Amino acid sequence: MKTIIAALALLILTTSCGVFGSLNSNTSIKPKETFVLGNNKHGSFKTRLKNEGVTTLKIYKAPIDGGTHSPILIKPQESITVKTEKNAALIIENTGDEYASVTLKVKGDLNLGMTYK
C-alpha cells in the first residue's frame, strides 16, 4: 500500500510541475545581435515567446540547408507562439540599440542547438 501511495505521489508531482517535455528560458540578446535556436538536425518544435524588453524583436525561420522565411516583428511586452518545422532554426534578432530580454517556452523536439550571432 505504501508503495502504491508513493508511486502515485511521485507521478502527480512530476506531471504537475510541467517541467518534463518543455524547455523554459529567459534569454538576453545584445543590441543588433541574434539568438539562434535549433540550427541543427531535429524534429519540429513549438515556441511560446514573450518580448520582455524595450526593443522590437524580429523573428524568422531559417532551414539548415539555407534561406530564411516567415519574418514576424514582436513589439515590447508582446507574446506569440511560433511553430518551427523539422531541421529549421528559429532566429530571434534584437533590432534595437539596447539589450533585449525574451522568455521562451519550447515544446516538441528539444534536441536543439543554441547560439548567439
From TrEMBL:
Residues 1-21 form the signal peptide. It comes from the Bacteria. This is Lipoprotein. The lineage of its organism: Bacteria, Pseudomonadati, Bacteroidota, Flavobacteriia, Flavobacteriales. The keyword Signal applies. It comes from Flavobacterium nackdongense. Keywords: Signal.
